[in-house]
Give the backbone structure.
Amino acid sequence: MNLTVITYVLYLAISLPVTVWVARTLFKHGGVFLLDCFGGDTKLAESVNRLLVVGFYLVNIGFITLYLKLANAIADVPGVFEALSTKVGTALLVLGGMHFFNIYVFNRMRKRTLLETAPPPVTPERRVRVATDV
Amino acid sequence: MKRLTVFYDHNCGLCRTCRRWLLGQPAYFELEFIPYDSLTARALCPEIGKLDPARQILAMADNGDLYRGGAAWVMCLYATRRHRPLAMRLGSPLLMPLAEKICAAISGNRLQLSRLLHLKSDRELGELAAGADAECKGGTCHV
């Protein structure tokens, strides 16, 4: 057990729970967006929500594990903090980016659905009799 | 809404260009173009004579809702998939008066604009096609 291993353990102990927390937040609150997008179809919205969360976990845990390796061994305790700040900071920024990207995607889907069902923006001047036998 | 019927001026080249452009756009519902002075127009909308269609474009929804001028143009854009967001913006209280003014200006000068831009109307093209020879001699066509 040396300082490098301690740094690795701390890095994983911080990044992985934060990933789980963000994923659960997205799952809990993103469901409302999706329900709106899919016209109240609960089953479909839940299914898409779960699929998106799986993707989120894969991408983020993948990045966190790939980013683990330190270039140089840690020599002293301040070195642990310095290494952690870079690693954890970057991992959180990537998580944040993914999080906002997800919200952007949800919003785009919602806007498209709303646009399809939006009523005309102008009011008619009047209503005329329509011939029904033409 | 399943269909929007637009009563347009078939003597106007600019109107023809707009008609063709709109018909080429992917749309949420059907757009139907009928010359305002045709028998079909009078049959579809018996009151059309009282609505002055020569001055401003008229659009009629399948429930009889009638839109005129700038509002008719906004409805045409609203029908298209790509330009519905623009229609929603133009239809807002802020931009609608401007849209009305621009449409009135273009509508009032449409024949001059068609001449300026060398645009042929449906009626002119119809007459050219009717007057052309049945066979194109020498592999070229003068229509």
Summary: The domain at 3-129 of chain B is CATH 3.40.30 (Glutaredoxin).
